[in-house]
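Quick bug: tRNA modification GTPase MnmE output formatted oddly.
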Amino acid sequence: MTQLLAITGTIAAIATAIVPQQGSVGIVRVSGSEAIAIAQTLFYAPGKQVWESHRILYGYIRHPQTRQIVDEALLLLMKAPRSYTREDVVEFHCHGGIIAVQQVLQLCLESGARLAQPGEFTLRAFLNGRLDLTQAESIADLVGARSPQAAQTALAGLQGKLAHPIRQLRANCLDILAEIEARIDFEEDLPPLDDKAIISDIENIAAEISQLLATKDKGELLRTGLKVAIVGRPNVGKSSLLNAWSQSDRAIVTDLPGTTRDVVESQLVVGGIPVQVLDTAGIRETSDQVEKIGVERSRQAANTADLVLFTIDAATGWTTGDQEIYEQVKHRPLILVMNKIDLVDKQLITSLEYPENITQIVHTAAAQKQGIDSLETAILEIVQTGKVKAADMDLAINQRQAAALTQAKISLEQVQATITQQLPLDFWTIDLRGAIQALGEITGEEVTESVLDRIFSRFCIGK
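Here's what came back:
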């Protein structure tokens, strides 16, 4: 059953994360025409409390037949259209954990509600005009945000900062289409079209679309994060670098080479970008079977990372072992980290040799927690070089939105080609309508069931 066909009836779901023996509050959300009736069946509010919209009631959730108390709770009532879904919505605020919320949800289902599908509350908000598609997707991004910058970008989308320019571009295309169709229907009564003016207007629209498309990589970076692998010979200070960077003791640090036997992971935020840092085992030839597995995993991590921090020991300089590892990772975006500079005379640091094609070099003394700021600056410079803005952007499109914008741009280019070829006006409208449809798919003015299924299936149940 598709999402569009599944929006009938009253739905219920647990709207908070379930944490065994730790959650203090659990919320069961119910939306639909029977929501209030279900609440009145299950919830007992002692005294003279008034069942009014946007009012919190205190009481007990009871089994409708046995009258056995299931939980002491609060009830929040939100009547349509002043609710998230623009339907009648009730929320049971129960004690957290597993048992209480599961029991309350089961009672709601037995009282006539059905279990909500993933994202169905937000789907109803969209179908009832509460949100457009860009805002709905921003809600998913906000829930899954892994950094303050990602959260701010999602909030900007939720506030309509993406929808507004898209709607304006679509309106501009509709204005051009109206001009063309007017000439088709009333050619004798109107002056001829100014081809150059039409092409200029289309070029301006296409340029604005290109500006929006430029935010795609930044959006992907904020959503998925940057995967960084710390790679190098054993005992060059990779684990010390991870510990100093993450300000924790995630990795074991000793003077013995080969201490790290597996990939150690840490989650950081650099310049608003989520960063997954992988401290890998020292890469070298070894007969130790366990270490050999760790070395192979290190190679795999380096080959799948977005960025490699190739770490060497400044005290020993560039060695044959470093060169062998470099040959394996030089095809990846790379920063050379010269570690242990506190053990080297400052005059010798500048004379250390390394391959000429390495352009990003950072000096660190990880054991002394020195050079971390320079390392983060270098990482952001790498990001900037890739034309991915790390901060100071109000919005960022996702893959679906980028695909629709790309289609709109292609359609507009086709319109320009049609005009240049001096084809009849009817041909102009074909691709112009295609651009209008593609832009409408972004905000939801024009949308199919398959698009909705794809978007809302990514949501969790209860949102």
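Actually, after a second look the formatting is fine. The radius of gyration is 29 Å. Closing.
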